[in-house]
């Protein structure tokens, strides 16, 4: 008779384990939804705007023309993620204004005291999202840097600097997306 009970208990063990697993899974699911956690791939913007205007950024640096690269990358990022439609100023609910405040270069690697092999360019951009009345709805300051090779040919070095600035502009636009869509 004791063996019969043991066999019955052995048959019921997998059922108990499965029951506990289901209870544990339900507990975890309820716990995660109860704390506000959700599994989502998209993040909502901090400020809900359907139509946004992005005028050319203001460039306060001595590097002429970089405002176009930065502005275009921000427009691309907003269009790519689809949280707002980029429109002309008269149709926009808000305007994303950017000011390129600072651009600095410094040596990273030297061949000698008078010869640099690599430089780093650093850029700071201040961003302001304003409504039609000019009230600031959101603002941020982004900074980034990138190294570039210095060559004997000044034209090639300038091309390397431009490529480094293009990388910075792209990363800043992506960082804007992460900051603008973070709710914490």
- Assess the beta-strand content as a share of residues: 25-35%
Order of helices and strands: HEEHEEEEH
Distinct helical segment count? 3
Identify the CATH architecture of the largest domain.
2-Layer Sandwich
Name the structural class: alpha/beta
Molecular shape: flat
Work out the radius of gyration. Answer: 27 Å
**Quick one: how many beta strands?**
6
CATH fold naming of the largest domain? Double Stranded RNA Binding Domain
**Biggest β-sheet strands, sense, barrel:** 6 strands, mixed
How much helical structure, as a percent, in the residues?
40-55%
The fourth-level CATH homologous superfamily of the largest domain is Lipoprotein like domain
Number of domains: 2
Name of the top-level CATH class of the largest domain? Alpha Beta
């Amino acid at each position: 008779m004791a063996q019969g009970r043991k066999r019955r208990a052995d048959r019921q063990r997998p059922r108990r384990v499965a029951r506990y697993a289901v209870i544990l899974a339900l507990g975890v699911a309820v716990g995660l939804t109860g704390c506000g956690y959700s599994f989502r791939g998209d993040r909502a913007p901090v400020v809900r705007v359907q139509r946004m205007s992005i005028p050319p950024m203001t460039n306060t640096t001595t590097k002429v023309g970089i405002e176009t690269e930065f502005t275009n990358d921000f427009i691309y990022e907003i269009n790519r993620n689809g949280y707002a439609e980029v429109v002309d100023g008269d149709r926009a609910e808000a305007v994303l204004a950017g000011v390129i405040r600072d651009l600095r270069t410094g040596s990273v690697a030297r061949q000698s005291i008078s010869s640099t092999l690599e430089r780093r360019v650093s850029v700071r951009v201040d961003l302001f999202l304003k409504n039609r009345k000019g009230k600031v709805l959101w603002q941020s300051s982004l900074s980034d840097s990138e190294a570039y090779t210095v060559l004997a040919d000044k034209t090639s070095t300038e091309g390397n600097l431009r490529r480094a600035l293009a990388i910075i502009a792209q990363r800043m636009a992506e960082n804007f997306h992460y900051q603008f869509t973070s709710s914490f």
